Amino acid sequence: MREVLLYEKLPGSRAKCHICQWRCTIGPGKLGVCKMRQNIDGVLYALNYAEVSSVAIDPIEKKPLFHFFPGSLVFSLGTWGCNFHCKHCQNWQISWTDPSFLEGSRTISPEDAIAMAKRERCQGIAWTYNEPGIWFDYTLDSAKLAKEHDLYTVYVTNGYITPEALDTIGPYLDAYRVDVKGFSDKFYRDLAKVSGWRGILEVVERAQQKWGMHVEVVTNVIPTMNDDEEQLEGIATWIRDKLGELTPWHVTRFYPQHQMLHLPPTPIATLEHAYAIGRRVGLRFVYTGNVPGHTNENTICYSCGNLIIARVGYHTDIVGLEDSRCRFCGADLNMRTGRRSQ
Ligand code: SF4
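Above: inputs. Below: predicted complex with iron/sulfur cluster.
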């Protein structure tokens, strides 16, 4: 266990955590909402520093990130616990957990993670599978080290970290793959009992504009919960107005999981409707996800209409890129590319 960053000591041996927007006030002996930070005698400790639940070598497209080092491999790590408890979580076995689960974990230090990423010829490292902010101190140490070793760094996040947490890790993060799960108070409350979800949007804008991170947005379209015109158009319009029309938006298919087994998978027609909303609003890159082989997985140049990247599942065929632009007409595709030393 190690003492965490970004908390304050309060009277009565209480501690207030400032990593995510819950800003938990934690009494002595108690845990925060994520169940991975514990107050012991007025000092706040991370229980899950370097404690890994999941590790894999993934194509970057699996995050999904489609405009960030396409075709590269990324060393992917997740821990235990989460600050959201979404009813449809596909990783609920690792995110709906408590400290007892740590007994089954594997310890991978930041140094070992970087060495493993290099050995496996990955171009970068991602903290994913559950919310990376809940092992913030570990991801910060690892991100600093990754930059020293010329690896790119990725947060796959629900976006609920605080502005000050973002500012602490901002200099060392390259990509921010964020969920905007819905666009109403009711939706976030019903899905995960989260209030104040608009704070997520402010931090995403900060990631892009203050820290220059590459941002891609994901919305898992859930029948009857966020598949209405108002929410989908709200998300698309916010992306266009605040992040820019070149920001990719992934509308992905929901499959019944965990506490939402009563809902059907998202009809393909609903995803195509979400895609159409995004395009109508003016987004240049909208993708349908979790539907392998769908043509809306491909990247098409909005300017000349040529195919830039063909995708089938996680197979990527880059046919139209030159210096990160369209090789046919030179259009800016908001694409980060390049080889990193391995
Ligand atoms: S990371 Fe978030 S949920 Fe966990 S203790 Fe801190 S404020 Fe609470």
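The longest helix spans residues 229-243.
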